[in-house]
Design a protein that fits this description.
The protein is mainly β. Helix content is 0%, strand content 62%. It is built from no helices and 16 strands. It has strands at residues 9-12, 19-26, 34-44, 51-60, 71-78, 83-85, 91-101, 105-114, 119-126, 131-137, 144-154, 157-167, 172-176, 182-187, 192-201, 205-214. The chain has a four-stranded antiparallel β-sheet with strand order 1-2-3-4, with no helix packed on it. Strand 1 (9-12) and strand 2 (19-26) form a beta hairpin. The radius of gyration is 23 Å and the shape is elongated. It starts with 8 loop residues before the first strand and ends with a strand. GO terms for molecular function: carbohydrate binding.
Amino acid sequence: MKGSVGPHLKVMGIVVETGEWAVVGGTGQFAMATGVISKRLLEQRSAAGGQIIELTIRAFCPVLKGPRYPVTKIGPFGGTGGSPMDITEAPMRLESITVYAGVVLDSIAFSYLDNNGQKRSAGRWGGPGGDGPHTIQLGKSEVVTEVSGTFGTYYDATTITSIKFVTNLNKTYGPWGVGQGASFTIPVQPGSAIVGFFVRGATYLQAIGVYVRTL
């Protein structure tokens, strides 16, 4: 049984007028559901009118305590100016990253899947300037394993002056920005991945941190 949004049940069986389907899982709060759906034909109308059927659902779904994919926040690195910008849904998988940069990092945006498998977009965080967009579209088996860069003073404010991304496929994206100032590196342990970001920003991106989860 599947709708357009929200948690879904996954069923298995053949299409019959009367019979049963096995509940074999689902998404969201129904992720570990098991059971049976019984189908009974109540009324056969004309070909144009279709059928009236009765569905009886008998299923068990354990309540999972805490998020299914717990994440850890690391950072931020950079300055303390600007406004904090963060996501509201915990990320499960990072899908794309878009960077705008000139002398410094102007802004960042990204898309990700949340714990329910819904696609989310964040940003553009920071200012409206910079060259770009420089977009990274991650492959299905590709995850970000390291973010590095530099931060320094630009127009009297501490700002991210360059950024670079490395993935598990030994691909390097960037660096973007001139790269003056102190260096920072955010690696993750084997078996983990960077799945999202949070920042401080104003006219430019002034600090950046990451969300990490175990794969």
